[in-house]
Specification:
- The complex is a heterodimer of chains A (about 325) and B (about 350).
- Chain A is of the alpha/beta class.
- Chain A has a single domain, classed as Thiamin diphosphate (ThDP)-binding fold, Pyr/PP domains (Rossmann fold, 3-Layer(aba) Sandwich), CATH 3.40.50.
- In chain A, about 40% of the residues lie in helices and about 10% in strands.
- In chain A, the strands form 2 sheets. A 6-stranded parallel sheet of chain A has the order 2-1-3-4-8-7, sandwiched between helices.
- In chain A, helix 1 packs parallel to helix 10, helix 2 packs across helix 7 and helix 5 packs parallel to helix 6.
- By secondary structure, chain B is of the alpha/beta class.
- Chain B has 13 helices and 12 strands.
- In chain B, the strands form 2 sheets. A 7-stranded mixed sheet of chain B has the order 2-1-3-4-6-5-10, sandwiched between helices.
- In chain B, helix 3 runs parallel beside helix 4, helix 9 packs across helix 13 and helix 10 crosses helix 11.
- Classes of the chains: A alpha/beta (about 325), B alpha/beta (about 350).
- At the A-B interface, loops of A face helix 12 of B.
- The structure holds thiamine diphosphate and magnesium ion.
Amino acid sequence: MNQIERFKAMVEMRFFDEACLEGVPTMEIHGELHTGIGQEAISAGLLGHLKNSDALVSTHRNHYHALIKGVNPYRLMSEIFEKKTGICQGFGGHMHPFSLKQNFSATGIVGQSLPVALGYAYAFKMRKGDSLAIGVIGDGAANHGTFHETLNIAGAWKLPLLVLVENNGYGISVPISKVLATETIAERAKSYSAWGKCVNGDDPDIVSEAVEEAVDHIRSNQGPAILEAVCNRFRGHYEGDTDHYRSKTEKHNMLKGDPINTYSEKLLSLKVLTENEIQNIVQTSKQKMFGLLKRVRGEKMPLPETALNYIFCEKTDG
Amino acid sequence: MANNDKIERNLNGSEAIAEAIFQEMQQDDNTILIGEDVGKCGGVFGASRNCFSEFGENRVRDMPISEMTFTGMGVGMAMSGLRPIIEIMFADFLGVCLEQIYNAIGKIHYMSGGTVKMPIVVKTAAGNIGSAAQHSQCLWGTLAHLPGLKIVVPSSLYDHKGLMASAIRSNDPVIFFEHKELLLKRARSFLSNPIVPKKTYTVPIGKAVKPRIGSDITLVTLSYSVELALESAAEVAKEGIDVEIIDLRSLVPLDIETVLQSVRKTQRLLVVDEDYQSFGVSGEIITRVVENIEPTSLKQIKRHAVPDVPIPAALSLEQVVVPNYESIKNMLIMMAKGS
Ligand SMILES: Cc1ncc(C[n+]2csc(CCOP(=O)(O)OP(=O)(O)O)c2C)c(N)n1
Ligand SMILES: [Mg+2]
């Protein structure tokens, strides 16, 4: 997978979430939305390393992971906008999209992605394929008991599991440095006989290289891996969060390091892309995502009389 | 009803709670507050604002996202003589620390033969504000099922402060269910008692209150549904239907006497509950009523709750499963017609 593809992916993800933001003030999305804005380089770094049969279990901040895993952006955005055309017909919403076809799912409960990913990893090993499972978590979730329990099991049984930690420095308002016993999360790897690395999550090339190493390790049957990618959450924790716990200077400095700008400058100086080509990618992506938004907005909501449809899959009325 | 324009302090539910916590912490150095984002941020709903700067990190501690462990810590803290207030951000997350709640906090006084006390408040935000299946649950019925836990569910702004103060002073464990909608709602738009005195006061746990007196139908409810019920009752009053509303305030202890008195008078009972319907609050209230009042002197019994379905994401679906102003009004009209 080349750098141009990575750059395109980053730009598309950014515009995908910016398009979603349009639905917040209008109440088209009526829960609290979590965007990945600022964290695009991590998902872009996964490009080319995953097979369709691999599983990915994500969090409340899941849009980019879904897109990278191949979930149809139109159907994903429809779900976020609570439409009948959504991948879950509007029943799940933005915090819990499910796509069996892509082996993709997510959870709104912090820390609960890892045990589910572990279940996939167990099944993959049992069936002797070379698929692997990725459990994505944030830095905050790394302090949940599930982290320890999951990695212990994966390490003991050499299960094909990649724990991808998107370390954006915060769990809502709490700086991770205040609640973490070690310098990094990845250094816990040795406790679980796992591969572990902490990398700069703002550069998709660096992430990609690390993902390749981790995936090789896992696919060659050597057990689980922890990849920690350090990044920034540009917006409040959710749309509506006033973000008053971070100082103006902190936010200002953070925004100066926008990974999309940094990467486009890198590709310019490497002569991988020209200024014109970059502008083209930006314009095309923007049109594509805001085009999706327009279509999604025209879709219908699920019919009220279907509200009790999926409680069970079998008939329960006697 | 107060003239809402004259309300001097236009507090919201979270400010009323925060004031209770602040004042109780001032009065007892052993009272401490732990939870996610309760420190500098002052709680994601603001229910611990000002506490961190006043009492410092040792007494107001931002926890890592480790609910199982910090709820268990509350047990050890209580045994060592502290009085912990534990914030579990959303009721939906009670699942990850339920072990410590129902096997330790709710049982230790009993298992210890009455020697060990558990003066713990687990406070949590419940209720639907449009956040789909994993962030909208009430779950007070689930917790009320478990022995040894007092279950407090405030509705009026006045009660938010007074019941929280009582919960903190209680030597028994209290699960305190706030409602997100009420945490954010301001005094001037409250229909039930919106006046919050500045001085400390308590509201006794276990006494229901009647925010509306009426003679035709008894509507028993709790939490945010009290506000909805008041709105619906005002509307149907225009059609001559006179509803009496009972705000339970707590499920354990349950003030069934107040309910019975009212039902004896109206002979009609409607229980409205934002929690799941089956095996829960509405079933319990109705059972106690029929256990105590001759069925022949009851004309109608109805309930209106979430029909045993996860809360859907789409607004179009949510509106038909969560009791709302319109649906409560329709129930009342239907009952009045059926008499
Ligand atoms: C068990 C549980 N506790 C608390 C929450 C509320 N909550 C949602 S996201 C979040 C912070 C998560 O931080 P992190 O894992 O770093 O992910 P980020 O939001 O930074 O991407 C919290 C506390 C939750 N959803 N589930
Ligand atoms: Mg984080």
